[in-house]
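To: structure subgroup
Subject: Chain for Friday's discussion

All,

I'm putting the inputs and outputs inline so they're searchable in the archive.
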Amino acid sequence: MIRFGLLTLSDRSASGERADASGPALARLVQTQGWSVTKAQILPDDESAIRTVLTEWSDSGELDVILTTGGTGFAPRDVTPEATRSVIQKEAPGLAEIMRAESLKKTPHAALSRAIAGIRGKTLIVNLPGSPVGAVENLQAILKVLPHAVQLLRDDPTSESSH
């Protein structure tokens, strides 16, 4: 069982001005895989607040994967990659690369994604786009490798058998 945290980053959703559609869409996809959503929260695009939640959630030992949605573009308030980079201990560039590569097959705007992925302790943090369609498509691009990634992070002695 992989335990997920879903962190939606949007000024408008945090203020109640717009409903969060990406978080629930990601939760549905996670649950169709038989995995669980343990934590979910909506925050404004505030680097300090994002950093705090990512750190607390990663260090809690309650989550294997944290998915962020939103704040990965070029807008002045898009600070999710910066907040993520400041808390991770190791980058996982292959995940961001495959997400962008798959997205580029559907839209040239994927080239504008600044999303990153990385590891803090035993938790994988993955930035996803803010649109529900983009977030789900990007998560689908990496779904097959997540179980093995979590095995490795858990230092599971059977992880080598899945190569």
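Points worth raising on Friday:
The two ends are 19 Å apart (CA to CA).
The chain has one domain: 3-36+46-155.

D.
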